[in-house]
């Protein structure tokens, strides 16, 4: 290594090589991607952009959203890669996003891209609600298999269900938002009041309820399809249930933070996020992608999965997020797990 450095310094001194050739741009990227995804995404991006190094700041959706908002007047992030579109809409309402049309954005499905021109954010993939049901533990407790959201209200499930806290987790918020949109606000809150009776705990991660179901800690975990399919493929004794009323969902998306000092590097990140190589990374985890024709069928996810997604008014979900979370906390915070 010392010999390589000496050669590089010698070349630089002789004028054959600029010292700047060895300087990398460090791009601070905030994300709510799953922890086991960020390594592969970083490697794929840096392979194409060897002059840029990603420094991740990773947390769950609610925490990353709150962190970005708290830094509004002194942004610390250059870009966001992997955050709920509803969260990015909130940042956009605060004037925090840099408009930019990534190269190849026209190849993405229009419904997965911000409608502003140029767009403020660009979709990556869809993740949606799924019930992880431990068949072994359920048999021990004589619990029937639920087929719908309504089934979860049955008294037999009291204390047997865990789900994500919507203020911490984007998965938790897409559940709450979907119930309110599908059922109407009055009936939606009434549903959650009854579900709360059966709830054992609200945890601060979208994937944790499925992990808890997989290990038998609780027989039922409301989570999302990617984590459930992965755990089932690994041999966990779980069934994945897609409630017949419809699945709450959100988009993971990418955006540039306005005021970044590394705008050109951030644009390269946005370009990559919308590219085929990036979509091939997303395809390893998700069944519905922003770029048509890339996703492959997962044996644990229904062929008609996209048709099971509920109607979702992203603008409504973003606009009303604070009020919904405040009301949710007033009603149900008593069963929230302690934060680590």
Automatic annotation (TrEMBL):
InterPro entries cross-referenced by the UniProt entry: ABC_2-AEP-bd, Ferric-bd
Keyword tags: Iron, Metal-binding, Signal
PANTHER family, A to Z: ABC TRANSPORTER SUBSTRATE-BINDING PROTEIN, THIAMINE-BINDING PERIPLASMIC PROTEIN-RELATED
GO molecular function: metal ion binding; thiamine binding; thiamine pyrophosphate binding
A Gene Ontology term for the protein's cellular component: outer membrane-bounded periplasmic space
GO biological process, one term: thiamine transport
Signal peptide start-end: 1-23
Name of the molecule in the record: 2-aminoethylphosphonate ABC transporter substrate-binding protein
Residues given in the record as Fe cation binding sites: 226
